[in-house]
Amino acid sequence: MVATTSLVDRMQDLLDNVMDPELSEISIRALGILRSVAVEDGIVVISITPTYSGCPAMGQIEDDIHAELKDLDVDYEVRTVLSPVWTTDWMTDEAAAALLRFGIAPPSPVGDKQVLQCPQCGAPQTEVLATFGSTACKALHRCLVCLEPFERFKAI
Q1: Which of 31, 78, 131, 135 is least enclosed by beta carbons within 10 angstroms?
Q2: For residues 91 and 137, is the Cβ–Cβ distance under 8 A?
Q3: What's the pTM?
């Protein structure tokens, strides 16, 4: 069992190098897309969940996983798991901080009614410009103080 545990740990560490194609400095693990790495019947099963059903990045994420693990002599498969659905609550604090560095407001915990602050100047006076931003998982906002537009990762 120790060998299995160390293999899973090693693969999880390698998968920390797989970045979200749309948020290039945030790993799929930090975003909560990487659900699990487990051994089933001698095969390592990597389970991933899209942030949205039909997310166009999933094919690229799977390709990037294969590229990261290509030098390992390990039997593995990548499974897309749709249930339970992905939630922004699975994002790590590291992912939220990285979103802020990108100028994207991170989501509040699901059900939390926190005041949205501008990621540029920190002002709480903002407005929604569009419920969809550059991707379906973001909405477009504008700060009413600095007047800069910004995206917010939607809480799901």
Answers
A1: 131
A2: no
A3: 0.82
